[in-house]
Write a structure and sequence with these properties.
Keywords: Lyase. The chain is α/β, with parallel strands linked by helices and 302 residues long. The protein has a single domain (8-294), classed as TIM Barrel (Alpha-Beta Barrel), CATH 3.20.20. It has helices spanning 25-38, 57-71, 86-99, 116-127, 140-143, 149-155, 172-181, 195-200, 215-226, 230-244, 252-262, 279-294; strands spanning 8-11, 43-45, 77-81, 103-106, 134-138, 161-166, 186-189, 205-208. Helix 9 packs antiparallel against helix 10 and helix 11 packs across helix 12. It is globular, with a radius of gyration of 18 Å.
């Protein structure tokens, strides 16, 4: 099984498209290089932010292979698995491994609200058909299925289920997980607006969204917290919060892509049925981004 370090800042990167709705690998490369330069610990492909539900298998292959070549072993590439059937999830995991991914992030079954028993069977089936380490994405708010601590008790019998992307919005869950599983289950915060609080309570890492546009600031918060430099981290976090709130919104993809445009490492192109923001909402988001860019903090040395 692949050795994996579930820690640090792991961007759930956006997928870049051209005006002709093809993959924009040139701008994608610009963004990944900015992430690497900032010191991220991994790259996560094909999440919600990556517009995974609109990508075909060939595009996923291109994205994984290109990213693996680009990172050149510096950080692991993680592929998200979000499928409707167990069979397709197993196939997606096999393909991700074949194309060079070093880890998987896994959502429960899509569309069908599975029972606890069915959810565990789904995760176990994939875990037993791949050698890749797995991070379970636990987001009952958006996906209506909670992976409880009792469920993790059973899931952790599979050695390659190693981490949780903790998105329950309940900070106390971090302490419960730590008390129950110690270091056996690594914890990565999955909610941008709770990231610093999660890190202070012992999260190992942060699966981040606004990092796509602001990589240096995101990594700085993580590093400063881990070094115990809480005041400095708090100052950056307070500046960041209006921007981070753009992530907890149904139009998070459009919001974050607009922010990437403002920082020069992305384009606004989204794939249908998504459309770029319009009218008052566009003005509102642009004003938040504009203020954020104009007041970007000085990053201390860490």
């Amino acid at each position: 099984m692949t050795q994996f370090s579930w820690k640090g800042v792991m961007p759930a990167v956006t997928t870049k498209f051209t005006h002709e709705d093809k993959l924009d690998m040139e701008m994608f490369t610009v963004n990944i290089n900015a992430q690497l330069e900032a010191g991220v610990s991994g790259i996560i492909l094909g999440g919600t932010l990556g517009e995974a539900s609109t990508l075909d298998d060939d595009e996923k292959q291109i994205l994984i292979e290109h990213t693996v070549g680009l990172v050149d072993g510096k950080v692991p590439v993680v592929m998200n698995i979000a499928e409707q059937s167990t069979k397709k999830a197993i196939m997606a995991a096999e393909k991700a491994e074949k194309y060079g991914a070093k880890g998987l992030m896994m959502l429960p079954p899509m569309r069908y609200k599975s029972t606890d028993y069915e959810t565990m069977a789904y995760f176990k089936a994939v875990a037993q058909n791949t050698s890749l380490p797995i991070m379970i994405y636990n987001n009952p708010v958006d996906y209506k299925i909670e992976v409880t601590l009792d469920m993790f008790d059973e899931l952790l019998e599979n050695d390659n289920i190693q981490a949780v992307k903790e998105s329950t919005r309940d900070i106390t869950n971090i302490t419960r997980i730590r008390n129950r599983f110690g270091e056996r289950l690594k914890i990565l915060c999955g909610v941008d607006t709770l990231a610093m609080e999660s890190l202070l309570m012992g999260s190992d890492g942060w699966v981040a969204g606004l990092v796509c546009a602001f990589p240096k600031e995101t990594v700085a918060i993580y590093q400063l917290v881990k070094e115990g430099r809480i005041e400095e981290a708090t100052a950056i976090y307070r500046w960041f919060m209006p921007l981070l709130e753009l992530d907890i919104n149904p139009q998070l993809v459009q919001n974050i892509k607009l922010a990437e445009v403002a920082t020069g490492i992305g384009t606004e192109n989204v794939r249908l049925p998504r459309l770029p923001l319009q009218g008052k909402e566009r003005d509102r988001v642009l004003s938040i981004i504009d203020h954020g860019v104009k007041t970007r903090p000085q990053i201390p040395i860490f």
